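User: Hey, my collaborator sent me this sequence without any context and asked if I could get a structure. I don't really work with proteins. Can you help?
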Amino acid sequence: MTHFTQAFLPKKLVAVAALIAFFAVGTSSAFAVNIQTVTSAKGIKALLVEDYTVPIISLSLSFKGGASQDPDEKEGLLRLLSAMMDEGAGPYDNKQFQARVEELGVEIGFGAGRDAFTGRLRTLASEADNSFEMLRLALNEPRFDAEPMDRMKTALITRLLRAKKSPRYLGGVAMRDALFAGHAYSRPVSGTEDSLSKLVRDDLVEIHHKLLARDNLKIGVVGAISAEKLSVVLDKLFGNLPEKAELRPIPEIVPDFGKKIDVVLDAPQTSISLVYPGLKRSNKDFFAAHLMNHVLGGGTFSSRLYNEVREKRGLAYSVYSSISAYDHAAVLTSGTGTRNDRAAEALSVIKSEIAKMAKDGPTEEELIAAKKYVIGTYAISNLDTSSKIAAVLVAIQDANLGIDYIDRREGYISSVTREDVQRIAKQLLSVEPTIVKVGPKAS
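Assistant: No problem. I've predicted the 3D structure and written it out in structure-token form, which is a compact way to encode the shape of the chain:
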């Protein structure tokens, strides 16, 4: 979940929307290069794409750790922290903070994933100093007042209770338990009713101090700000955070495959998920796996699974495969939802297509089409707004891809051969998957 505070005054909203629409047209070519490394006087580093096409500044940040750092029996703590960071800071209580943000027309938001705690800011350049000050307060002086904390805990618990009726949620819980038993990844990012209800202010204060530190921080900035100005801003925003984070070590884990799990839920459809090994982003064969996944089920309307499950047989509205690369594990997941009386058939078709991919890999024509798509859509999907570019700059640092990654990416993809993809397909998809089905009890 990402919790955002955002409000543009009507006139600002109209002006900014028009500027962003203009900005998006020329983004991909303008921002594929010219990435600068900025280092502040206190040694805080950021990647910067300096551009004055429109008077907007976007900042993205990430602290390594995330919900895997939730203490035992305090699951959901990082999720609550993300919801509380802009609910009052420094001299501003939550209402005053929201009013000031609205007055400035700035977006400030935070989120908690499994491996990272994230934040972002977007502001008009004319309000940059004031907007940065609000972000500084949120990062360094969150208040964690009782009223907004109780309200946010209630909201998270309510959301969790609704989710428990969802096949996707129930399947995800069962899948985590099966794949990552005993590991931090088996624990719910959103917490439980019991763990959330027991969280107190001191828990937030402690995890904030331990996690938000300079040595596990990555920053990306895009827009109308110079390297010199940004250097000063970095020290103001982050210079007073602790120098070193206090993170508990999270071990690597090889997921447990080959399990068959049925979760009983009275629903008109059966949800099916199959999980195979994946590859981490740092693996040299990552793009071979990425292209294979695109042909199999990641390419949506052009994928084999879509063609076989939906187009030919009408078994489901959607079917997919995707690779999830965490810091300490990686998996490839395929899944669909279908009528209860056709669940067995849908599962059989998916397993058959995966077996074919494991045996023969993609055709040369499929691989060529996948390369064109993956190369051609990158800018549209990732570089069409300043906020997205800032997030990419953070991701590049998180994965240690190098400042010239965007320029080199096409070459990496183009160099993948069919033999590479065949080898990876066999390696990943020949494993007996863990299968989770959520639906009515079989008669």
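In plain terms: The chain is about 45% helix and 20% strand. You can pass these tokens on to your collaborator as they are.
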